[in-house]
Structures are given as C-alpha cells and as structure tokens.
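Morning F.,

Quick status update on the modeling queue. The single chain you submitted on Monday has been processed. Sequence for confirmation:
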Amino acid sequence: MKKLGLLCLAVVLAMGSLGVGYAMWSDTVTITGPVTTGEVDVCVRDIAANEAIPGNPDPQCGIGENPERKDVGWVSYEIIDCDEVRVTVHNAYPYYSALAHLTVCNTGSVPVRWQQPMIVDYDPTVMTVNAWDGTQIEPGECNDFTFEVCILQPAEMGETYSFTIRILYVQWNEWAPSP
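Structure tokens below.
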C-alpha cells in the first residue's frame, strides 16, 4: 500500500511539473503599436528598339541570313498602360529580328521584382518573343529590361504582326523563378 501511495505521489508531482512547464511556454504576448504597409506599383516609362542603323541590313535571328541586305522591317511600340505595351512589327519577313528595351520604374514604396511577362494577342506560329525576368527594382529607381522578337519561317513577307506584353511585378520577397 505504501508503494502505491508513493507511486501516486510521484505521478501527481510529474503531472504538476508538466503543467508548470506548459504554462511557462504557452503565454500570449500582445504588442501594441502602429503598422505601416507598403505599396507595390511599377510603370513602364520608356521603350526603345535596337534595330539596324538606317542603311544597314535588318538584324536576323535563328538560321536567318540577309544576303540581300534588306533594310525594310521596323518596329513600333505603344505604352497602353503602366504595365502593358503593344508591339507591332511592320513589313516583316521570315527571320527578321528586333530587340526592345523597356525602362520600368518602381513608383511604389517596397522593392519589386519582374515576375513573369505575359505575351498575349499573338500568333506563336509566326513569331517568338523572349523576355527575361527576376531583376529587383528598389523604390524610386528604374531598370531596363530587354526582350527579343523573332519572326519565324511561316510568316508572310511584308505583313504586320502585333502582340502585347503585360508585365507582372511582385513584392521582392514573393518572387519565384519562372518554370
């Protein structure tokens, strides 16, 4: 009987110790104070083409060659909204290429990163558009980004092809590499 009493006392003391330990680690701490959140906001400020110098042959992509030294294709750009640019390739022909440089400014209050450009309203059988992502822009700063347009073999000569680039930016710590 004495052993049973000691065992019960030991169990009660052990449970009490566990209870004290749990109580010490499960307190709630309340902090009172102001919270300031930031704003994610970017805007395309400028866009420029890197085409051939007038009188020089048009640039080519892929296996394209320009033995005739054509200087007939050209590209125009329109900034539709802060995060949307319309690109039009005029007088295109197979393997014509152009590079475009966008100047994008962070007008928000937190650092941002270019997440993934969305290329929409285009025919992927006649052109490819390559853009690069991931660069961080600090608040109040601007950065240049480049994308390349390549007209493919199925394109008709002398045609006009257009597409829209929609730029997606995210807060710097939410950025994930493109798949």
